[in-house]
Design goal:
By secondary structure, the chain is mostly helical. The chain is built from 14 helices and two strands. The longest helix has 14 residues. The structure holds fe (ii) ion (FE2) (2 copies). One fe (ii) ion (FE2) binds next to loops.
Length: 256
């Protein structure tokens, strides 16, 4: 058997199946950004020129991916919750706890949105990503709190009964130490007028989900309506500094 006849490895086979599936999507081909491959330990870019040469009758997807839930022409925050966020439980339960603890609507909204970076986008530095996404649409205090919870999570505050999460010891090991940029951010936040707002996200951040708790997104639609400036054109189409982030979430496999 010569080199060209060797049987395919499992990963080559998986790649071939995936490519076939992608090609059969329709006449439009979805592409993966480099970031998606990095999660599998690969740094590679699909070669558009080579693909076009091999498939001259195909075009690349430049809009909605038919495998994902369809989004309306003018998407609202609630549409993203329903169609793009991988999990709502944590966000809903944290917001419900904040409501039960008597916090104002800004804090409840901050709890509802604090992990949208993780729920929709990326884990690394999720507080910063989430804050940036919502910044044009919420009170500055809300986005500030979402950004800062990223750092505050790692530091206890006995004055409000917040301890270093046991879950972090389980997840990262007992000897994990936050990087210097997180420590600096925490020190900056400590003396800020909105420190307690960000701290309240940590206090209401629920790690142990109650599978029987019934929390519904509908319970928060009014609070969102009063505190999130939904753009008339739809999230992604209002030319705000974060519109591109919402569009990317809507069309994650667009070629460009
Ligand atoms: Fe978080
Ligand atoms: Fe959280």
């Amino acid at each position: 058997m010569n080199e060209h006849m060797r049987p395919m490895t499992l990963s080559e086979r998986a790649d071939e199946i995936e490519e076939k599936m992608m090609n059969e999507l329709a006449e439009r081909v979805a592409t993966k950004s480099v970031l998606f491959g990095m999660a599998d330990g690969k740094i590679e870019l699909q070669n558009g020129v080579a693909f076009k040469a091999a498939n001259p009758d195909k075009y690349f997807l430049m809009g909605a991916d038919p495998r994902l839930p369809a989004m309306p022409a003018k998407p609202t925050l609630i549409d993203f919750f329903k169609n793009r966020f991988a999990s709502l439980n944590h966000l809903l339960q944290s917001a419900a706890l904040a409501l039960k603890n008597g916090h104002n609507e800004k804090i409840v909204l901050a709890c509802l949105l604090h992990d949208i970076g993780v729920a929709s986008f990326i884990r690394c530095d999720h507080g910063y990503w989430g804050a940036q996404m919502i910044e044009p649409y919420v009170d500055e205090e809300v986005s500030w709190a979402v950004r800062m919870h990223q750092a505050l999570r790692f530091f206890p505050d006995e004055s409000v009964g917040y301890e270093y999460p046991q879950q972090y010891i389980n997840n990262f090991g007992a000897d994990y130490k936050p990087e210097p940029y997180i420590v600096r951010e925490y020190e900056r936040a400590r003396n800020h007028k909105w420190y307690m707002s960000a701290r309240m996200i940590c206090v209401n951040d629920i790690y142990s989900f109650d599978p029987n708790a019934k929390v519904n997104l509908d319970d928060f639609v009014d609070i969102v309506g009063r505190n999130f400036r939904q753009p008339e054109e739809g999230l992604g189409f209002d030319d705000s500094p974060s519109a591109h982030m919402w569009r990317t979430l809507m069309w994650p496999t667009r070629f460009l």
